[in-house]
């Protein structure tokens, strides 16, 4: 049955996080980026939306889904949200 849940293609899920204690505001994000870069050869190309992070841009959000699912979701968005009311957070941009 078709669904629109992003990031389910892999056998495993990876989440890297850390506490942004004073003095670590730059270290933690850099370490998390390094972990993600090291694991990129095994990535599916999709992502779990809840784990994208606050700094995820429109391109990264759109890449959370496979192209077919993303196209289907964008068609629904154009049909039911032509005014782009639902545009905050990790929303697809039509």
The rough form would be described as flat
Q: How many extended strands?
A: 0
Number of helical segments? 3
Question: Could you state the order of secondary-structure elements as H and E?
Answer: HHH
Rg from alpha-carbon coordinates: 15 Å
Biggest sheet: strands, sense, closure?
A: none
| Overall pLDDT confidence | 90
- What is the end-to-end distance? 25 Å
Which structural class should the secondary elements be placed in? Answer: mainly alpha
- Counted up, domains total 1
Oligomeric state, counting identical vs distinct chains: single chain
Helicity range: 25-40%
Strand content: under 5%
Regions with pLDDT < 50 over 5+ consecutive residues? none
Question: How would you sum up this structure in a few lines?
Answer:
This protein is an all-alpha fold and 94 residues long.
Structural write-up:
- The chain has 94 residues and is mainly α.
- Helices cover 34% and strands 0% of the residues.
- The longest helix is centred in the C-terminal third of the chain and has 14 residues, at 67-80.
- The radius of gyration is 15 Å and the shape is flat.
- The mean pLDDT is 90.
Keywords:
single chain, about 90 residues, mainly alpha, about 35% helix
Secondary structure blueprint with pairings:
Layout: H1 27-39, H2 58-62, H3 67-80
